[in-house]
Amino acid sequence: MMLAYLTKYKELMYFLVHKELRIRYRNSLFGFFWTLLEPLGLMVIYTLVFGYLVNLNKGLPEGAYPLYVLSGLIPWTFFNNSVRKGTKALSSNASLIKKVYFPREIFPLTMLISNLVNFIPAFGLIMVMAVVTQQSIQWDQLALLPGIILIQSGFTLGIALLVSVLNVYYRDVEFIVNLLMRAWMYLCPIIYPVKMLFSTDADPIVQQFADLYFLNPMAVIISLYHGIFFPGQGVPAHPTIPGFWVIYTVLVTVILFLGAWYLFRKMNRRVGEVI
What we know:
Number of helices: 13
Order of helices and strands: HHHHHHHHHHHHH
Shape: globular
C-alpha cells in the first residue's frame, strides 16, 4: 500500500520534498553545505570534549576517534531530524490537510525522504574521513549498507507515523519526543566505543545492564555503521544465535512499522476535524 502511494502521488511527494529542502536552507549563506558542515562541527566539538578531555577513545586506533564519532553521528542525525520533524508533519500542514484529501502518510514519509536526501552525501563525508584517517574499510560490511539504510528508514518511519498522528491529538507529544531524543542519543554508541560497556574496567552498574544494551534497535543500527570501519566495534556476536541482534532489530522494525501504520490509519479519520 505504501509503495502504491509512492507511485500514485509521486508528483506531490516530489513537490513536498523540494519545498522542505528549499525552506530548510532559505536565506542561508552555505545552503545545502550545512548538511556537511553541521556534522563536521559537532564532530570537532565531541572529539575535543569526549575524545581528549573525557578520554572516551579507549579501544580505538590512534587518531580514529573523529571517524568513529562521525560514522555514528550522521546516521543519528538522520534519525533524529526525521523523528523530530515527523512529529510536526501533520500539525504543520493543517491548512493543506483541510483543503484536499490524500493519504496523510505522505507527510511523515516526506520528512523521511528529505532527510534521506541529506544523509546520502553526508555519508560520503564519512568515506572521505576514512581515507583521510587511513582507516581500513570492511568491504563486506559496506556491501550491506543499502540494507542497513533500509532497516533504519523503516524503523524511523514507524516512529514518525506514530508520533505525527499522536501529536495532532496531544500536543505534549512534541515536547516529550524532543526530551526523549536527547536522552536516546546517549543510549547509542556515538560518543563512546561500544566495547567500553563490556570492559572489565566498566562501572559495575554498567556491566550489570550491558547485556540489555542492544535491546535498543538504534544501538544495533549505529553499530552496523561502525562495523564498516571498526570490526571490533560492530554488533557483538550472540553466544547461541548468529546475527541475533540484527534479526531482532529487523523484527522490531517490522512490528513497529505495521503497528504504527495501523494506528495511524485508525486515528487519521478524525485528523481533519481535530487539527
